[in-house]
Structures are given as structure tokens and as C-alpha cells.
Amino acid sequence: MAIEKSDTLHGRILEEFSSNIVDGTWPPGYLLPKETELAEQYGVSRMTMNKVLTRLASEGFVIRRKRSGTVVAQPRAESAVFAINNIGEEVAALGRRYKWSLLSSDSRAGNAQDRRLLGLNEDEAKDNSLFLQGLHFSNDEPFCLETRVINTKMVPDALGVDFEKDVPGSWLLTTMPWTKARHHVRAINVSGRDATLLELPVGAACLEVLRRTQIDAHWVTCARLLYPGEAHQLIAEFDGKIGG
């Protein structure tokens, strides 16, 4: 969405910043000066400059992170709504460096939080399964937080895999066929540990994808993929059919 033209100082700053980004004066990855420095440079209050930067972030022009400050956004990654994609390939397609970091791995029965977060029913959660959590990185910045459970009755080989080296989703795609998949997609505001791991402020918009795959009536894996909202978007293409 384009920034509307305005005669106000606030609007003129928005136009100038967005123009700098669009014409390449500020390329992707460019680190903007600190908010206080920009406010002083343009003769406005810090609150006004914060509103400018917040608007730019909501429009997808910049990314604001606690650790690295405000940087010009890379082109957004795109995923097909109904496809099961390899996240490493998504990052590589953007011309960025990809890295996977395993945060936890635990063989256990599920609990109420697992059922809520991953969509497991009570019967599915009662047996020991393999619970994994890790971060996908793009150019050393968090790209996606993955929380996953694997049904080890259906995929017993998963217990012997070193998921510090093998990315769980990629390993499953190449070794475990599935006959049915379901995606549930929604926008959420990140909080707590999720915000910390993604290096986002509490309340930042994120895209949550809940994915479940099955072989016939038996579930294989359930995963929660959490993406910073300004860095990701979903696409869908449909062929028109007469009478459809």
C-alpha cells in the first residue's frame, strides 16, 4: 500500500522515507538512524517519529527489532497457501543465507498446552511423541519459529535423527509420504517467549500457520509455524472452471 501524500510534516516525512526505500536510496538491510536522532534531525517529537516508523513498519517498508533497530525490509517471502514448502528453499529464493537452530527436543506425552497450540486431540496427546522447537534464520535474523510434534508410532525413525543437523520439515518431506494435509492460517499478535525468540516487540503482528499431515486416518506431524508479519505473505492461485 502506498503512503498517501500529505501537507503535514508527519506526512512529508512518511513520503520522504518511503521514497528513499522505493527508489533504492535506502536499500534492503539499510539501518536507519536511531529514533531520537531522526526526531532531532527533522525537528519533531520522538512520539511523532515513532508514529512515522510504526506506519512504515505496518506498510512493510521497514522492520523494527529490539536488537538491531529499524532496517529497510527485504522483499517479502511468499508461500502458496495450499503447498507444503521447504522453508530453507523459501529463504534461498530470496537470495539470503539460511540457517536452522534446534532449541529443544523431547520425547514425551502431550499436555493441555500442546493440544491447544498444535491442535492435537486428547487421544493423540496421551502417547509419547517427539516434540521439537527451533528457529529458521534468514541472514542471521529470525525468519520463522517452528514448534512441531511427530507421531513416533507412524515415524519411528524420527527418534534416531539428529535434528540439530536435519531440519524436521525437510526430513519429513523427503522421507515420509502423506495422503492428507490441512492448514489453518491466522494473524496474531506475538507475546511472551515467542516475541523474545523472534526478536520482536510484544504485540507485533505475526502470521501463524498450523499444519497437520496424515496418512489415511493416522496423523504424522502437527506443526506451528510463526512468521513475523512484515516478512511473510501467503499467495494462492486458482484456475477458473466453467460452471465452478
Automatic annotation (TrEMBL):
Species whose genome carries this gene: Celeribacter persicus
Keyword Transcription regulation: yes
InterPro entries for this protein: Bact_HTH_transcr_reg, Chorismate_lyase_/UTRA_dom_sf, Tscrpt_reg_HTH_GntR, UTRA, WH-like_DNA-bd_sf, WH_DNA-bd_sf
Domain HTH gntR-type, residue spans: 7-75
Keywords: DNA-binding, Transcription, Transcription regulation
Molecular function GO terms recorded: DNA binding; DNA-binding transcription factor activity
Protein name: GntR family histidine utilization transcriptional repressor
Entries under Pfam families matching the protein: GntR, UTRA
Superkingdom in the source lineage: Bacteria
Record's keyword annotation contains Transferase: no
